[in-house]
Amino acid sequence: MNKQETAAKIKAMISENLRIPAEMLTDDAALFGDDIGLDSVDSLEIIAGIDDLFGVNMTGVGKEHFQTVSSLADYVVANA
After folding, report:
1. DSSP structure class, residue 44
2. Which of 1, 7, 67, 77 is most enclosed, with most CB atoms within 10 A?
3. What is the pLDDT of residue 23?
């Protein structure tokens, strides 16, 4: 699976699980902070969702991989 397909699946999962409007989830929007405003509880949902979708364990992964949908997709593609 390429990065673009992975990012699309991650966006759909975040939109569904965290009830974030899909149009807000661009590849480079900051997930935590001013753009989307997720918190640490939301990060646990993302970890569980990525494990379910891709079989990639993100427990204990550095926060640099959680900055944007693009950085999440990079991590998944590199570790799937």
Report:
1. H
2. 7
3. 93
Q: Averaged in consecutive runs of 10 residues, what is the pLDDT profile of the chain (80 residues)?
A: 96 96 95 94 95 94 93 96
Task: Please tell me the pTM assigned to this model.
Answer: 0.94
The tokens describing 75, both together, are 């991590």
Q: Calculate the average pLDDT of the chain.
A: 95
Burial class for 16, CB neighbours closer than 10 Å (0-12, 13-18, 19+):
exposed
d(CA 45, CA 58): 11
Instruction: Give the chain's domains with CATH numbers.
Output: 3-79 (1.10.1200.10)
Closest CA to 69 of 5, 51, 57: 5
